[in-house]
Amino acid sequence: xxxxxxxxxxxxxARAAGVSTATVSRCLNExxxxxxxTLRRVMKTVDDLGYTPNFNARAMAAKRTHTIxxxxxxxxxxxxxxxxxxxxxxxxxxxxxLLVSSSAYQPELEAEQVRALVARGADGLLLIGYERDxxxxxxxxxxxxxxxxxxxxxxxTDHASVGFDNCASMKQLTEQVITMGHKRIAYISGIVDxxxxxxxxxxxxxxxxxxxxxxxxxxxxxxxAYEIETGARAFRSIMQAEPQPTVVMCGNDVLxxxxxxxxxxxxxxxxxxxxxxxxxxxxxASVLQPSLTTVHxxxxxxxxxxxxxxxxxxxxxxxxAFRRLDVxxxxxxxxxxx
Amino acid sequence: xxxxxxxxxxxxxARAAGVSTATVSRCLNExxxxxxxTLRRVMKTVDDLGYTPNFNARAMAAKRTHTIxxxxxxxxxxxxxxxxxxxxxxxxxxxxxLLVSSSAYQPELEAEQVRALVARGADGLLLIGYERDxxxxxxxxxxxxxxxxxxxxxxxTDHASVGFDNCASMKQLTEQVITMGHKRIAYISGIVDxxxxxxxxxxxxxxxxxxxxxxxxxxxxxxxAYEIETGARAFRSIMQAEPQPTVVMCGNDVLxxxxxxxxxxxxxxxxxxxxxxxxxxxxxASVLQPSLTTVHxxxxxxxxxxxxxxxxxxxxxxxxAFRRLDVxxxxxxxxxxx
DNA sequence: CAACACAATGTAAGCGCTTACAATTGATTC
DNA sequence: GAATCAATTGTAAGCGCTTACATTGTGTTG
Lengths: 338, 338
Known about the structure:
The structure is a homodimer of 338-residue chains. Chain A is an alpha/beta fold and 338 residues long. Chain A has 13 helices and twelve strands.
């Protein structure tokens, strides 16, 4: 004896409209298979009853969810916000929903989230970067879940991806810095372990140095989490060394923001006493005083393309392409010639 | 004739372990009801087969999802990031998952998302602010979905909520500003329509003026979206008027950041030529130069409490409390006496 | 007008779980 | 040793949809 639930089901609609459940289902999903008269009547009943299809039942019967999952390292800072927004918008335009979770930069957590999203029936997945336990890729392949990787682009990889070359981009910025006469360079890096973007950027700096005959071993590197506060701390410790560097390059804009604030607190003028650079080109960079020299990444474009490509994969129009986007060095007030 | 899918199901596990599906289900959900020996054997089989429970099937059979839905106006800027992070962490600690969508400040979109989240089986919902179509509340009540409102707190409302008094907080800041001698005040407001937080803040400014005998009609108000760029534009248009205000108060820190950048561009010194204030106390405020006077909102605490209370409601330990949190005026460099 | 094609609708079998209830087991008691 | 009971396990009925297949109705054709 179940209490008569007041939540209308397909059955209720069918009964009220005097048709079978199959017909109602068709009205909802394949209108062209139903006569116009029936369609109108059924839709009116749907409205009258305030019927909403039960998503889980639907997913179960149809084995499609029109849902895409995304796992990003963090939502707490702006690095991924813009790109994910564009990703979401594009999905929405094409009739897909987005489920996001964050892994807090922890590989095991990411693996767990992959399973959770697949268990929820995600038709496809967006992951950040390449580096992760092969088991995860194995699982995805066995389950046949189209997956696209973003925010990085490494030569010689064949996985579907849309990103930019973190290493080459940072190398380019480093060469620019060196060209402006800087020799004593310090670098505040994000945590490299398990983060191929951070690793690539660090490698890019070293390659930039090497390309100009500077010994990469002279580079001071501090590795720390991507937060304003930790960026500030790293900057302080760097500037205690003797001789002080003439430029502190940062693994991203958030770290750079921390460095800039700390510079002011230490009474150092930017860029007269020390130059500072960032990476990403988030809004924060243009609000800083002086505004931040950074590497601008086309986040929105990356998000949009990722969505389009992933849907093509889900709908079997593509087997997964490799797309590399160009970045742009933004030279601004925080970097000056020596 | 279905192709033999390689995705293991409960049945597969049961067969392989030589028990019934009920027992496997118990091993997964109510370990205490199963003998230790069986439990071990079944769990090993689960592991060997790489079995993952199908979430949709589970939700359907159990009518519980351990999933909470949240709909916030935007993910694109930092206003909600910190609070949602804490909300998420607390949910996770208590064994719940979070599904977030953003409504882009559009009431119809929000209503649609509410239905979508409920259709997905969300056990409870977090919504921002009070103001929305009564139909939405009606729907939620009919479906019996516990819902908590956050980010605002209005006297005389009885809905479960955890927030702060936007109006009183802004009134307090306004009084502080007036006490410092400011008479010509301008205010850059967020879009008030459909946003009770923005509306409350604007009302708070007017009440603050009135309380000190300043005619609220002399207040210049520019209403615009919460973006750095629009904040900058609003500031420019305000400073073109004669006589210029001595202080530009802003509806949030993002607008204030735009105002500050624009002030520099116009060659105006802050706070010597014009004072600027914000609201929210996001990280951005402390990175600005000079650092921003703002109203600090305990976002993390709000997120945590919202999660705890909502779970209590879902698990029938509470019927929905009304919690008001205190804010703190942060007096910093961007505001000076006249 | 019988024969047929095609459009519209109906029937019913699952999808992979949870759980009420029934059955079995083994220990305990008298 | 029969009776009792708690602990453990099994049986099977759904949960609310989609969809392959069967059925019905309608207009065309020879």
